[in-house]
Design brief:
InterPro entries: GH, Glyco_hydro_17, Glyco_hydro_17_plant. Keywords: Glycosidase, Hydrolase. It comes from Lithospermum erythrorhizon (Purple gromwell). Belongs to the glycosyl hydrolase 17 family. With about 200 residues, this protein is α/β, with parallel strands linked by helices. About 25% of the residues lie in helices and about 10% in strands. It has four helices and seven strands. The strands form three sheets. It has a three-stranded parallel β-sheet, with no helix packed on it. A two-stranded antiparallel sheet has the order 1-2. The N and C termini lie far apart (about 45 Å).
Length: about 200
């Protein structure tokens, strides 16, 4: 597994348990992780399965979602069926290799855009949230860290002034449109209730 920021798995062993911080930033990451540990603070990451699709035309589409139809990545006896779990556990393995395998990890941003790219669409966004929210509600965690994970969705509303330098999708991460109206029905509880339209803003 690879992450564009600071950790990855080696190309000859691309599995989460082999995750390590990149050698060129290991000194800086050691200082940051030690600081977080000393202050009882979590390590916060952003996980964007959409960006894995956007950056790699060969990335398996189904691996970005949670419905279990993708070809799993086998890491010993562990089967990874989605990139969210694989990415999270790659970081966890990187922290463990540094001696901080018990450090809390928050997911500061996770979401799916609804426009601006062929994979940025309402159907995929709804599919993503229909898998993510029940997973979180059931406290499934990941193979290497089962249980509750603190996760923050990105984002609430589209940002019409945001730079599109990274891609046209950047203005379309919200579950609400610019005018405060919901884009698609959702079950925010994750309790397998029927998807319902969220309450939109009024007089906008």
């Amino acid at each position: 597994m690879r992450n564009s920021d600071v950790y990855s798995s080696p190309t000859d062993n691309p599995v989460p348990s082999a995750g390590r911080f990149r050698p060129d930033v290991i000194d800086q990451m050691t200082q940051i992780v030690q600081f977080l540990h000393q202050n009882n603070a979590p390590f916060t990451i952003n996980i964007y399965p959409f960006l894995s699709l956007y950056a790699d035309s060969h990335f398996p589409v189904d691996f970005a979602f949670f419905d279990g139809v993708s070809q799993p990545i086998m890491d010993g006896s562990i089967a990874y069926t989605n990139v969210f779990d694989a990415n999270f556990d790659t970081l966890l393995s990187s922290l463990k290799a540094m001696g901080y395998g018990d450090m809390p990890i928050f997911v500061g941003e996770v979401g799916w855009p609804t426009d601006g790219d062929k994979n940025g669409n309402i159907g995929y966004a709804q599919r993503f949230y229909n898998g993510l929210l029940p997973k979180l509600a059931q406290n499934k965690g990941t193979p290497l860290r089962p249980g509750y994970i603190e996760v923050y969705l990105f984002g609430l509303i589209n940002e019409d002034g945001k730079s599109i330098a990274p891609g046209n999708f950047e203005r379309h991460w919200g579950i609400f449109r610019y005018d405060g109206q919901p884009k698609f029905p959702m079950d925010l509880s994750g309790q397998n209730q029927p998807n319902k339209w969220l309450v939109g803003a009024q007089d906008v």
